[in-house]
Write a structure and sequence with these properties.
about 400 residues; mainly beta; Immunoglobulin-like; 2 domains; eight-stranded antiparallel sheet; seven-stranded antiparallel sheet; 3 helices; 32 strands; elongated
Length: about 400
């Protein structure tokens, strides 16, 4: 166990009385580090994902009952709908004692905006105490993990905001500080808290960025708060992007197939490419789309997989091997994010820039191996939700 440093106190800093350093023993931590299949591990702190040997952490002794800490995770690259599977936090004693407890609560928000160091949290989508009718015990000297996989906590804004509230802490009092409390990854040196990543709720003040916050003339970081909250999570992509319907076999006997890369976004401007593979080379085509739902209506020898009214993107070429070769090496593709913001021309529906809009789409192209009016290529279809 590392030697505790002197505790700094200031009555003007009632809610952050000081900090002390305790040893991070690496015992009982494996549960907090494990995510299930197809889950993504998120870590706010800079400690190893699986700690080994003694490490130093900072105990934020001045965080009082009725106050909270939290962290912001950017999950926009994981999917348009991301579900919280479990959440974990560090709770430590200044002397490194094990088994000391407090009572905390978990709240989750979907999204956040900033005005300098003052955050505005998005809608609260989960409150453990209200939903379950129970409390959460924080125990030293470890990372405590709460399984939320059965709670269907889904964020769609691209920003997952996890907050931990201190309800009951019998290990001290607010004026003098608490010997056991939430912890950060390091309390030494210059301010190491990452801006707009950590959150602190101060009674009478509200949410603040602890890397820049002050109480009166006193800046919190690095004298009374430092480092990043030890706060972790496992999440899973539950976006609904999927294929459906039946493609039309082309005149060469190939079955076109729709596919995609990236995530649909209302604001990104690029990064979500829809593709139609196994089509005839060097043929014109375009993407048909709707927001009215799925269908399977007989159409030019295949199926129109979209409920009218049907809209269209600008035309594209299937490319593939150069003529005079004729084969199934062609592929239609279009970046739907770029089309949605008007970067590719055409007249995109305004709803393509509204998060949550459900879209169905299908490639149509020319296939002169069939006689009119069946001289077309039709892929199967894709359905996706527009993300933030």
């Amino acid at each position: 166990m590392s030697r505790p440093v002197p505790v700094r106190r200031s009555l003007a800093l009632r809610s952050l009385a000081g900090l002390a350093v305790a040893a991070f023993l690496g015992t009982g931590l494996a549960e907090a580090q494990t995510c299930g299949p197809n889950e993504v591990f998120l870590k706010n702190d800079t400690l190893p994902a699986v700690p080994s040997g003694p490490l130093s952490v900072a105990v934020i002794r001045g965080l009082c009952e009725g106050e909270a800490m939290g962290a912001v995770f950017d999950v926009s690259g994981i999917g348009t709908q991301v579900q919280l599977q479990n959440a974990a936090f560090g709770f430590f004693n200044v002397a490194g004692a094990n088994g000391i407890q407090a009572v905390v609560n978990l709240k989750v928000h979907d999204g956040i905006t900033w005005s300098g160091g003052v955050p505005t949290l998005g809608p609260e989508i989960f409150d453990w105490a209200n939903v379950t009718g129970s409390s959460i015990a924080a125990t030293t000297h470890a990372i405590n993990t709460v399984d939320t996989s059965a709670q269907n906590i889904v964020v769609t804004s691209g920003k997952l905001v996890i907050t931990w509230w201190m309800d009951i802490n019998p290990n001290g009092d607010c004026p003098s500080g608490y010997t056991s409390n939430f912890g950060t990854d390091d309390g030494s040196g210059a301010c190491s808290a990452v801006p707009q990543q950590n959150l602190l709720y101060i009674s009478g003040t509200g949410w603040r960025d602890p890397s820049t916050a002050a109480i009166g003339p006193f800046p919190l970081c690095p004298l009374y708060y430092n480092g990043n909250w030890i706060l972790r999570a496992c999440v899973k992509n539950v976006s609904t992007t999927t294929s459906y319907c039946t493609a039309k076999t082309n005149s060469f006997g190939c079955l076109p197939a729709i596919g995609w890369t990236g995530n649909p976004s209302a604001t990104a401007g690029s990064g979500f490419t829809i593709r139609g593979a196994n089509v005839r080379n060097q043929k014109p085509g375009l993407l048909l789309y709707t927001i009215q739902g799925r269908a399977a209506t007989p159409f030019t020898g295949g199926f129109l997989c979209l409920v009218p009214p049907v809209k269209r993107t600008p035309g594209v070429s299937s490319l593939g091997n150069p003529l005079p070769f004729q084969d199934c090496s062609g592929m239609y593709q279009i970046d739907m994010n770029a089309f949605a913001v008007g970067a590719l021309g055409g007249n995109p529906l305004a709803q393509l820039q509204v998060p949550g809009t459900k879209v169905q789409a299908q490639f149509w192209g020319r296939d002169n191996g069939f006689t009119p009016p069946n001289d077309t290529t039709l892929t199967d279809a894709i359905e996706f939700d527009v993300g933030p």
